[in-house]
Amino acid sequence: KKDGIKFTCKCYDEVFDIFLPMIGEHNVYDALAAIVAGRVLGIKSNTIRKGLSEFSGTPMRQEIVPFEDIVILNDAYNANPSSMAEAIKALGQLEGKRKIAMLGDMLELGDFSEEAHREIGHLLAEEGYSVVFTFGDAAAFIAKAAKKAGLTIFRCNSHLEMANAYSDIREKGDVILVKGSRGLRMERVVEELKDKLAEGKLEKADTEAARPKEVTIYAPADGKLMNMSSVIDEDGRPFPGKGFAIKPSTGKIYAPFDGEIKFTFGTKHAFEIISNDGLQVIVHVGLGTVNLRGQ
Known about the structure:
Elements: E1 5-11, E2 14-20, H1 26-40, H2 45-53, E3 63-66, E4 71-74, H3 81-90, E5 98-104, H4 113-126, E6 131-135, H5 140-148, E7 152-156, H6 159-169, E8 174-179, H7 187-198, E9 223-227, E10 244-248, E11 260-262, E12 270-274, E13 280-284
Parallel strand pairs: 4-8, 5-6, 5-8, 6-7
Antiparallel strand pairs: 1-2, 3-4, 9-10, 11-12, 12-13
C-alpha cells in the first residue's frame, strides 16, 4: 500500500494481519520484534494490531511529506551505507512517475568513504532512479557513479541551490528521497521546497483559475508587524522566503480564514490552512520554540 505496509504475522498459536503506517520492508522486522515482546508480556493481539496501526513515526525518519502533486520521503535525520540503501529501496513503495534522490554525504566512514558512496550511486541506477542531486564532497562519488550509469546528475553547493535546481525540472508525480548524515542538515532542502510552495513556485499551473478573485485574510496573531529578515532562527540565520512576520502581543493563534488545518510539512513549527475555495496559507509559529504535531 502506498500509505504503509500490510503483512501477516504468525506468533505462537495465532495468525493475524498487521498494518504498519510506514514504508520499507526493514520496518517489518522491527514490528515483529515489538509483537513478540508484547505477546511475552501478555498483551493481546488485537491491542498489538491497534497500536501498530496507529504508530506515528518521528520527524525526519522516513517521514512522508505530501505536497500538492509530488511526495517527499524525508529521511534526513542521519545516514550510513545500510540505512541509505534501505531508504533508496523503500522509496519504490510510494506511487510516482519518477524516482528522485537528494542526497548528502555519509560522514565518518574513513577509508571506506569513497567506495561506500560509489556503491550508493550504483544502487540508484539499479533501483530505477531518474535524477540524483548531491550535496557535499563525499557525495560527489555518488554523483560520479550514478552519472556513469546514465542518470541525470545535479551537484549542488547548498540546500537552496538543490531546491532551485529541482524546481526547474519538477514534474507532476515525482517521488523524492531526501537523506544524508546529520552534519549535512538535509531537512533544510525540504524546508526550502516548502518555502517555494508558500511562494507559489511549486503549485500546479491550473490552480490559479480555481482561486477566488478577492478574499479577506485575517492576521493569525495580534501584535507588531515585522519583516521576514528580522526573524532569526536558532542557527542565527534570517528566516528564508517571502511573507511577513508578527511579534505576538498575546499567546493566541487565529486561523486567517475558515478552512481545514493540516500539518503536512517536515517541520515542527508550521501548519497549513486550506479554504474550501482552495486558498492555502502556511503559518510558521515560534521558530525553535514549539513542536506542532497532529491534525
